[in-house]
């Protein structure tokens, strides 16, 4: 059940925007569509909701093909980035709108509006005008209105993008909490990788109308299938080398491809590049042969670049680490790599 | 602080000039309505008379007279203009169909073509259709002439709002018509009111078109008023002009009030 998309193609102004997207979202799952602006995330969302015509492919919601179904009959509701609260209605009537369409009784609507406002922490806001509430409160009203429509599929189009960080975190927690409570199948569009990793059961990384990788947050971060995917989530160190019998050999060091017994390792021999995140590399102050090139202090953490001779390795350490350990630019140091956090990919895949 | 006071003084003077530009002519009309003779260079009128005022009210009192054929005809024309303009604006802005650009150009033709030329064309067409010399023929002619004004006003506002609120209503469960009626129409209420007033005043002040299509059988307030204006009978012309102005102001105020009530009801309705 949930949502199934097969080979979906969408064109806008005679130019193909989505090039055969396939995606499945399980019932009650929260999936993020992650990607840079213009990669087709919002177009995909609008196509699912029936607001954009499709050129080909299949969209199934709860087991029914909905390609030819009108938007109001699909059971999918979008909370748009610009929220689209009806300015000629107060908060209560905005939330009541989908319930009035379902011809619910006034008493039931009144109770439901109260309950939804309580869920989004806006008790007593029924009679407030839209112009009288803040941006964060508008987000909550839009969310409550969407839930009031009892959607089979909730589509969130960058709903937190206009908020400051504190409010954004609060809203993310609220949405995550409501999703857990109501178990509505949800697709969240975002360009914020932290938001996608934190909130989602699975993340679909999009680029130029294609899905690069669709996986759990942990897998997409630590097991990227391409350099593009790896680099979208932050800086990556690539260390060239080769694997023979479970041992990776490179100019930067030699280590086991998998912690534990080498005989358990399944990586076949050959030329590889090791993908190592900067925070999975440690710095060894004494006895090293590499030179510290730069130290960039960024508050909570600092980025240290180390020249290994044939390349520069980036390391993320806790803020103030270099100062407290008397490491400065020009010093000699060594590096230690968390072997369990390294992804090995054949050199020809990493294009 | 000194500059602020100076600015206020200047804006006060400008406002007073504009107010005087409106009030003084109306005041002159008022005085002339009760004046039979007011010769140059006298500051005060020579003879006062109630003839013109009595004549106007006698005509207004008649059942089925100029009040119905003028005001009601214009009100219906204005209402139809707004309804048709709302639907046409949506079609012209958001739907792609063959001839869309030609229709868009056609919608501004009455601004370009002189009223007399337009009236002649409409008359020839209406004679063939059997609509000449009829009340509904005059109403359709007024509608054709006032619709582009209403359409242009509503199109600008609708284009600014876009389709986004309707899209939101659709995904919340409303069908296309319901989304249009429940969301777009109320949001366009202020501009619809302006369009209504514009269409009303265009219709209410039509002389040539009414005379030509109505063939003298459809008598509106303007049909009676204009001969007085052109003949130089200032006493009667002023009395009729004052009533014309009064009716228009009342209609505008009533429409504004109705829109305000409707807007308040929409904002505060209990589900």
From TrEMBL, chain A:
- Keyword Transport (UniProt): yes
Using the record's annotation, list all stretches that form the ABC transporter domain: 3-233
Molecular-function GO terms, alphabetical: ABC-type ferric iron transporter activity; ABC-type quaternary ammonium compound transporting activity; ATP binding; ATP hydrolysis activity
Broad enzyme group: translocase
Keywords attached to this entry: ATP-binding, Cell membrane, Ion transport, Iron, Iron transport, Membrane, Nucleotide-binding, Transport
Q: Which Pfam families match?
A: ABC_tran (PF00005)
Q: Is rRNA-binding set as a keyword in this record? A: no
**GO CC annotations, alphabetized:** membrane
User: By its UniProt entry, which SUPFAM superfamilies does this protein fall under?
Assistant: MOP-like (SSF50331), P-loop containing nucleoside triphosphate hydrolases (SSF52540)
Q: What is its EC number?
A: 7.6.2.9
Q: Which PANTHER family match?
A: AMINO ACID ABC TRANSPORTER, ATP-BINDING PROTEIN-RELATED (PTHR42781:SF9), SPERMIDINE/PUTRESCINE IMPORT ATP-BINDING PROTEIN POTA (PTHR42781)
Its name, as the record gives it, is ABC-type quaternary amine transporter
- Specify the species: Johnsonella ignava ATCC 51276
TrEMBL record, chain B:
Q: Which residues form a coiled coil?
A: none
Domain of life of the native organism: Bacteria
Q: Which SUPFAM superfamilies does UniProt cross-reference here?
A: MetI-like
Boundaries of every ABC transmembrane type-1 domain copy: 67-255
Membrane topology type: Multi-pass membrane protein
Q: Which UniProt keywords apply?
A: Cell inner membrane, Cell membrane, Membrane, Transmembrane, Transmembrane helix, Transport
**Regions crossing the membrane:** 12-32, 64-87, 107-127, 134-151, 171-201, 208-230, 236-254
Q: Where in the cell is it found?
A: Cell inner membrane; Cell membrane
**Gene Ontology biological process terms from the UniProt entry:** transmembrane transport
> Which is an annotated Pfam family here?
BPD_transp_1
Annotated signal peptide: none
GO terms for cellular component: plasma membrane
UniProt record similarity statement = Belongs to the binding-protein-dependent transport system permease family.
- What protein name is recorded for this chain? ABC transmembrane type-1 domain-containing protein
Organism encoding this protein: Johnsonella ignava ATCC 51276
């Amino acid at each position: 059940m949930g949502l199934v998309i097969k080979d979906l193609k969408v064109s806008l102004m005679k130019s193909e925007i989505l090039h055969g997207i396939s995606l499945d979202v399980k019932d009650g799952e929260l999936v993020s569509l992650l990607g840079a602006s213009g990669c087709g995330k919002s177009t995909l969302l609008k196509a699912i909701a029936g607001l954009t015509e499709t050129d080909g492919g299949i969209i199934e919601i709860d087991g029914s093909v909905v390609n030819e179904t009108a938007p109001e009959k699909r059971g999918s509701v979008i909370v748009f980035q610009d929220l689209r609260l009806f300015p000629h209605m107060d908060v209560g009537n905005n939330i009541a709108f989908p319930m009035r369409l379902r011809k619910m009784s006034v008493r039931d609507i009144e109770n439901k509006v109260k309950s939804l406002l309580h869920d989004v922490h806006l008790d007593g806001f029924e009679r407030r005008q839209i112009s009288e509430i803040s941006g964060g409160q508008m987000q909550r009203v839009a969310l409550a209105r969407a839930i009031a429509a009892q959607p089979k599929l909730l589509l969130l189009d960058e709903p937190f993008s206009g908020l400051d960080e504190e409010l954004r975190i609060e809203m993310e927690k609220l949405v995550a909490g409501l999703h857990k409570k109501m178990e509505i199948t949800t697709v969240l569009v975002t360009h914020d990788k932290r938001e996608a990793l934190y909130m989602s059961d699975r993340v679909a990384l999009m680029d130029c109308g294609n899905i690069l990788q669709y996986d759990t947050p942990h897998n997409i971060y630590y097991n990227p299938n391409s350099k593009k995917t790896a680099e979208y989530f932050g800086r990556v160190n690539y260390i060239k080398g080769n694997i023979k019998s479970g041992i990776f050999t490179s100019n930067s060091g030699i280590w086991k491809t998998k912690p534990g017994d080498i005989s358990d390792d399944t990586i076949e021999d050959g030329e590889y590049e090791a993908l190592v995140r900067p925070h999975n590399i440690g710095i060894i102050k004494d006895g090293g042969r590499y030179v510290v090139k730069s130290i960039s202090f960024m508050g909570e953490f600092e980025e240290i670049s180390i020249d290994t001779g044939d390349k520069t390795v980036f390391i993320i350490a806790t803020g103030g680490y270099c100062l407290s350990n008397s490491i400065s630019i020009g010093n000699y140091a060594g590096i230690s790599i968390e072997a369990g956090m390294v992804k090995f990919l054949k050199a020809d895949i990493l294009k | 602080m000194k500059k602020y006071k100076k600015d206020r003084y200047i804006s006060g003077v400008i406002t007073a000039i504009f107010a005087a530009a409106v009030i003084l002519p109306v005041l002159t009309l008022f005085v002339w309505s009760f004046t039979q003779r007011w010769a140059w260079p006298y500051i005060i009128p020579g003879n006062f008379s109630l003839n013109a005022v009595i004549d106007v009210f006698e005509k207004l009192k008649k059942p089925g007279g100029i009040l119905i054929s003028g005001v009601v005809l214009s009100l219906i024309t204005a209402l139809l203009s707004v309804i048709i303009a709302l639907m046409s604006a949506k079609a012209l802005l958001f739907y792609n169909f063959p001839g869309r650009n030609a229709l868009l150009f056609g919608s501004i033709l009455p601004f370009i073509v002189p009223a007399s030329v337009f009236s002649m064309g409409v008359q020839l067409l209406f004679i063939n259709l059997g609509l000449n010399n009829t009340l509904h023929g005059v109403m359709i002619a007024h509608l054709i002439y006032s619709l582009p004004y209403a359409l242009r006003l509503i199109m600008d506002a609708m284009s600014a709002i876009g389709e986004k609120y309707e899209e939101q209503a659709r995904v919340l469960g409303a069908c296309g018509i319901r989304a249009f009626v429940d969301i777009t129409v109320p949001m366009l209420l202020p501009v619809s009111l302006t369009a209504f007033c514009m269409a009303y005043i265009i219709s209410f002040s039509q002389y040539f078109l009414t005379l030509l299509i109505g063939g003298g059988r459809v008598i509106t307030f303007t049909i009676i008023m204009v001969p007085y204006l052109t003949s130089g009978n200032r006493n009667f012309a002023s009395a009729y002009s004052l009533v014309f102005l009064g009716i228009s102001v009342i209609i505008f105020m009533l429409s504004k009030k109705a829109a305000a009530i409707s807007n308040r009801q929409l904002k505060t309705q209990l589900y």
